[in-house]
TrEMBL record:
Protein name: Cyclic nucleotide-binding domain-containing protein
Superkingdom assignment: Bacteria
SUPFAM superfamilies reported for this sequence: cAMP-binding domain-like
Residue ranges constituting the Cyclic nucleotide-binding domain according to the UniProt record: 9-78
Pfam families recorded: cNMP_binding
InterPro entries: cNMP-bd_dom, cNMP-bd_dom_sf, RmlC-like_jellyroll
Amino acid sequence: MNAPVTTSMPRALPAEYRQRLMRIAREVSFPEGTRLFEEGGRADRFWIVRTGTVDLDMRVPGRRPAVIESLGHNELIGWSWLFTPHVWHLGAETATPLRAYEFDAELVRAMCQEDPEFGRTVARWVGEVVAHRLQAARVRLLDLYAPYGSGDRG
């Protein structure tokens, strides 16, 4: 049996690397209903949720955007900032008032470049988040749009 994936920053990154990231964090707040980013837009920052909830959504032709996952305390908002071409693959909107730590993507990428072990650790963390979100998107889209019984939940 596989160990559960740990995608929240405090559990996914060693204390030294968390502290290094937190030194460049900026505290931000957004009211409910704020669009943090749109699918296809430039991914130049990311956030860690302090309080509140953010819905990740995906455009579906001819329908309202499908909410793929809701993120809360200590979860990473945004992963596209790490991978070329640095374009958002999903959209994000605050479901409740949000307080978060915001990070400048270019600065974090430079930190990863300067310290390869730090870079590998951040990439592994973000990669685990991507894998988790991909699975969540698959399950959610099957729930919403597939004929009954066509999805395999196992």
